[in-house]
Each structure stands twice: as structure tokens, then as C-alpha cells.
Design brief:
The chain is an all-alpha fold. The chain contains nine helices and no strands. It folds into two domains: 85 residues; 218 residues, Ferritin, core subunit, four-helix bundle (Ferritin, Up-down Bundle), CATH 1.20.1260.10.
Length: 322
């Protein structure tokens, strides 16, 4: 019995070999299926890689396209801005005003005269406004004084800047307002009366006459008719300006009396600048000067109405003008 039995592993090995020999097509089929699966997996990997690669290439290619669109749009906007700016400059250069205002040419006599005389006229308004701001207790008066002082101070700087660019002196020589043709060389309304119909200062006449603007004598007889003598303290005041006596009286007052007198002097001062501003609007060749003069008419016109109201509220009347 023992000699006839075969080892189990031998039987099993022979069985395996016999099964393979008996069914060769089954083994080949399994091998083919395995190879097919591996091939499909490889193709799937290649497809995935190709998709990623295509997406990457698409993104890379899209970026320059988007950049070109943005750059082209920016260039178009820049060209439009350049063209608009050039058009504005050309339009401004057709008007001799802006050329003069930029200092590349001399301004016309009206523009120069307005800048000189209105700046001097403004100085007194700024002085009065700054003075009362330290002394009045009326909030409405303080606000008005602040508005007038700050606005006219800025306008003084602008006009003096123009004069410097034009190569003109800040202060004119001779009679004021001679640049206003038909105004009598700086005549003052009805002969120079300010407010109460009196003459300038203490009511005395200038020199031995009472004429302003024809070159007659002023004070000590120094002639101003040739336009070469500089202005002095004895020269006639421009319309609406307060005399030294009036300023001294304002400085002597306090309380509501001070507020009322300040309003009266400032109201008349504003009224005195109207003719100059209106003439500049109509006759100045420099556009910037015309625009400033119109702004003065608008702003000071509103302030005149306000001061009328404030005087009425305080039971006071404006000073006569002219």
C-alpha cells in the first residue's frame, strides 16, 4: 500500500498541467483579456494627459489674448484723452485770453487795469474783515467777515499772480480806473462822494479843486495826469472804499454799534466794485479775468442782499451810495 501511493503534490502538479493542456484556449483568452485591459488603461491615461495638456495650452493661449484686449482698450482711452486735451488747448489758444494768462503774451489794458485796481480794492475789504473777526461777538457778522476775507484774499493772490506773469506792476500808477473808458478816468459817481455825500477823508477837497481823473492837482499839486507818478495816500479812493476817518471810527466802536457800522461800510464797499467787475466782464480780453469778474458779481451780489437783511434785522439803514 505504501509503495503504491503517490505524493499529493505530484498529483496536484500533474493535475494542473493536465488542465492547461486540456484547455489551452482558456489560458490564451485570459491572457488576451488582461492585455486588452492594460491597453485600455494606457489609452485612458493618455487621454487624460492630453486633456490636461490641452487645457493648459488653452489657458496659456487665452492669457495673451485677454491681455491684448485690455492693452488695446487702454490705448484707445489714452488716445481719446490726448485728443480731447489737444482740442481744448487749441480752442483756448484761439482766445488770446489764456495765452496771456499763461504768461506767454501781454494782456490787454482792461485785464491789467482790472487786476491792479480790484486787487487794491479788495485789500481794504480783507483788512476790515480780519479786524472785526477779533472783536465782534455776533456770529452772523463773524461768519460774513470770514467769508469775505478768505474769498477776497484768494482773489487778490490770483490777480497779483496774473500781473506777475504779464510782467505788469501790482500797483498801477496815476489815477485809478483809467482803463474804464467813459468813466472819467476814475471819476467817483457824482463827483467822489462816498456814503454820506461828503468828500474823501475829512471832507476836504484834493488840492485846490474837486476834479478826479483829468490830471488836475491832488493834495500838494503833484500832477498825475501823465500817468507816471505812483499813487500815494492822498490819491482819490475808488468807489465804495472807506476813508481813513471812517476806518478810525469803526475801530473806536464796539458791540452792536461796531457790527452795524461794519455792515454799512462793507455793503457800500461791495457796491463800489460792481462797475469795475461789470466792465471787465464786458470788455476784458482775458477769459480768466472775465470769469473772475463774473464770479465777483455773483458772490458779492448775494452778500449785498444778505447785508441789507442783516441791517434791517438790527434796525439800521445802509449808507447812501454813491
Amino acid at each position: 500500500m505504501t509503495g503504491q501511493e503517490e505524493p499529493d503534490d505530484t498529483r496536484h502538479g500533474l493535475g494542473t498541467e493536465s488542465d492547461e493542456a486540456a484547455h489551452p484556449e482558456t489560458a490564451e483568452s485570459e491572457t488576451a483579456e488582461s492585455e486588452t485591459a492594460e491597453s485600455e488603461t494606457a489609452r485612458s491615461d493618455e487621454t487624460a494627459e492630453s486633456g490636461h495638456s490641452g487645457t493648459a495650452r488653452s489657458g496659456v493661449a487665452g492669457a495673451p489674448t485677454w491681455s491684448r484686449v485690455v492693452i488695446a482698450g487702454a490705448l484707445a482711452v489714452a488716445l481719446l484723452l490726448v485728443g480731447a486735451t489737444g482740442g481744448m488747448l487749441l480752442a483756448e489758444n484761439r482766445d488770446g485770453a489764456d495765452t496771456a494768462a499763461s504768461g506767454t503774451a501781454r494782456a490787454d489794458p482792461v485785464s491789467v487795469g482790472f487786476a491792479q485796481d480790484m486787487a487794491a480794492h479788495h485789500v481794504q475789504a480783507v483788512t476790515m474783515s480780519n479786524w472785526i473777526r477779533d472783536r465782534s461777538e455776533d456770529r452772523a457778522v463773524l461768519q460774513l467777515a470770514f467769508d469775505i476775507g478768505s474769498t477776497q484774499q484768494e482773489q487778490i493772490g490770483r490777480m497779483k499772480g496774473w500781473l506777475m506773469l504779464w510782467g505788469e506792476p501790482e500797483q498801477a500808477v496815476g489815477e485809478p480806473m483809467t482803463w474804464m473808458s467813459g468813466q472819467g478816468g476814475g471819476a467817483h459817481g457824482d463827483g467822489g462822494a462816498h456814503g454820506d455825500g461828503g468828500a474823501h477823508g475829512d471832507g476836504d477837497t484834493h488840492g485846490d479843486g474837486d476834479t478826479h481823473g483829468d490830471g488836475d492837482t491832488h493834495g500838494d499839486g503833484g500832477a498825475h495826469g501823465d500817468g507816471h507818478a505812483p499813487r500815494s495816500a492822498g490819491d482819490p479812493l475808488m468807489p465804495g472804499m472807506a476813508t481813513e476817518d471812517e476806518l478810525a471810527r469803526m475801530r473806536s466802536l464796539s458791540g452792536e454799534e461796531l457790527d452795524v457800522y461794519f455792515l454799512q461800510l462793507m455793503l457800500r464797499h461791495h457796491q463800489g466794485g460792481v462797475d469795475m467787475a461789470r466792465y471787465a466782464v464786458e470788455h476784458a480780453e482775458v477769459r480768466a479775468v472775465r470769469m473772475l469778474a463774473q464770479s465777483m458779481l455773483d458772490v458779492q451780489g448775494a452778500e449785498v442782499d444778505l447785508m441789507h437783511t442783516m441791517l434791517t434785522e438790527r434796525g439800521a439803514e445802509p449808507l447812501p451810495f454813491p
